[in-house]
Amino acid sequence: MYDNLKLDNQLCFRLYTAARLIMQAYFPYFEPLGITYPQYLVLLVLWEKDHQPVNDIARRLHLETNTVTPLLQRMEKQGLLSRKRGKEDTRQRIVSLTAKGKALEERAKDIPDCLVAQLSDKMEDINCLRAAMPALDALIDGLR
């Protein structure tokens, strides 16, 4: 057997598994809010800066617009955001938070700290993950 084909030697497997398990750990926090992890990511983008074109949201999330659009449509049906035609470019859709979407920010404000506390209970040095963020950002940029 080739060493580079052993599961234990796969960085991608660790990244995939960690991402899947972290999303699973978020679930109990999102369920009372009625949102999913991808919806949370959209909300994070809009809480940081409201009234953004779909293209900007997709770019920020490293996704294609055809992936983001159905997500935004579901969120609009939930009353979390609205999508309006751009004033300068009517082909563009501007996404804005509704009062309900804005109110979720207050309810979600403790989620990151809760998740960090949960992870800290399971590992000795959570700071090593924060220290890895620049390397992960470089990996993401390199793969894009």
Q: Could you outline the blueprint of secondary structure elements for this entry?
A:
Layout: H1 11-30, H2 37-48, E1 52-53, H3 54-60, H4 65-77, E2 81-85, E3 93-97, H5 99-108, H6 111-122, H7 127-131, H8 133-143
Antiparallel strand pairs: 1-3, 2-3
Helix pairs in contact: 3-4
Descriptive keywords:
144 residues, mainly alpha, Arc Repressor Mutant, subunit A, 2 domains, three-stranded antiparallel sheet, 3 strands
Say which CATH homologous superfamily of the largest domain is assigned: Winged helix-like DNA-binding domain superfamily/Winged helix DNA-binding domain
Low-pLDDT runs of 5+ residues are none
- Contiguous helical run count: 8
Q: What value does the Rg take, in angstroms?
A: 18 Å
Distance between the termini: 31 Å
Secondary-structure arrangement, i.e. CATH architecture of the largest domain = Orthogonal Bundle
- Please state how the strands of the largest beta sheet are arranged side by side: 1-3-2
Biggest sheet, in brief? Answer: 3 strands, antiparallel
The average pLDDT is: 93
CATH topology of the largest domain: Arc Repressor Mutant, subunit A
Principal-axis shape: globular
Indicate the percent of residues in helices: 55-70%
The first-level CATH class of the largest domain is given as: Mainly Alpha
Strand content: 5-15%
What's the helix-strand series? HHEHHEEHHHH
**Category from helices, strands and their pairing:** mainly alpha
Please sum up the structure shown.
The chain has 144 residues and is mainly α.
